[in-house]
Design goal:
Number of domains: 2
Distance between the termini: 20 Å
Number of helices: 3
Largest sheet: 5 strands, antiparallel
Strand order of the largest sheet: 3-2-1-4-5
Structural class: alpha+beta
Shape: rod-shaped
């Protein structure tokens, strides 16, 4: 996944980028940085609208104000997918089999219903944990556009 943005600040290898004007034009559209969660709380003139960070892994000669293209790290995206889907599935499986072992008289339907409750409970807990501690620097600077 690649996106473009303008360099706002450079701090060593970490670059702060403001996303393209498309996010500012329509605050209801989701941008790739925060999926519009942060944008909806800001006004179109807010200087922090659509800000995020990326790593200048390729040691490109970057300057403030340049337009650049960034790319999401494949490994980071894979980790996000695994972290998002594996715990809820494991929560379902663990609760289903644990109920079947602890209460053998419970039917499959009741065990499945409890498993689904634990699936959503695990997903809810994971969602709030990731909101408090999001993954950092999953983007890298790919190339300079202008």
């Amino acid at each position: 996944m690649t996106e473009t943005g303008k360099i706002k600040e450079i701090n060593g290898k970490i670059v702060t980028i403001v996303s393209d004007e498309s996010c500012k034009k329509n605050l209801e559209d989701s941008c790739f940085g925060c999926m519009s969660m942060e944008c909806k709380n800001r006004t179109a003139n807010d200087p922090l609208l659509g800000c995020f960070t990326a790593e200048n892994k390729n040691a490109l000669q970057l300057e403030k104000g340049q337009n650049i293209e960034i790319e999401a790290r494949r490994r980071a995206l894979l980790v996000q997918v695994i972290v998002a889907f594996l715990p809820p599935v494991l929560g379902f499986a663990a609760s289903y089999f644990l109920i079947r072992i602890l209460f053998p008289q419970t039917g499959k339907e009741a065990s499945a219903a409890i498993g689904i409750i634990f699936l959503f409970l695990t997903a809810f807990i994971l969602y709030h944990a990731r909101r408090k501690k999001p993954q950092k620097e999953i983007y890298i600077v790919k190339r300079i556009i202008t």
